[in-house]
Amino acid sequence: MPKFILRIYFFLRNYLNETISFFIALAGAYLAYIFYKEPGFQLASLVVLAITSYLIIIFLKLKSRDFYYIFFDKYDDKKGWVGSGYFDYYPSDQAFLIKDSDAGFIFSNCLNWIDYEMNFEAKILKNTLGILIRATDLSNKIMLQFNIEANGIRPHFWANGGYVKQEPKDAGLEFKGTLIEGQWYKLKINVHKDKIKIEISKDNKVIDEKHWDIPSALLSFPVREKDKEAGDTKNPIGMLDIRKDYSYGTIGFRNGHGEKALVRKLKVEKI
Question: Is the pLDDT of residue 40 over 90?
Fold first, then answer.
């Protein structure tokens, strides 16, 4: 679909209340015009119209902010994103480049969302793209790392700044084929309760589909002893268990040092 049509569509969705109010005002003016000789009927019609419009606006307000669409085709599209490292406009591809961001970037407008679906286009430039879901802040989140070298998706679980991860084989998230660096793919991630559905498309055709359950949020982190003289850490001396709730949280992107990817045309919507 042409970009200008998409812009018109999402403009109308973003400003639906205002658009409806405008047409209601036009309808009121029209009624006033055709019934100007019958004041009683004119008044009754305008009252009914006003009550109806009031109820419609209230309903739409309750349903508002249920989606966001971000093209990532200009610098201003960084508004609402919080993080550290590099996540900015990349003019040659009209997309945002995510790299050198150990903490990642999260979209602050969806912090209290529970169930949602995100669609976007992605191009991996160097090995990985980390997609964040159920992030309550930069230290507590789940990352689905699309990893070309590992030929699959590595789930990472962050709790209070530390993390544990699963290999694609252990999580049942190995790719059917192979993702290729430098090519655009369409990704769809549906997050519903503890069920995650992932679709990867190329040239408008689904080439891979994964289903994954968020496991029990009891995370075990290795506790290491610090070597004061050498300044490094020794082998683990025990395990620290942390119970973490991943029942809600926003979306985001993360790539560490040596990892690069582009994203564009992001849509996230409540379900």
Answer: no
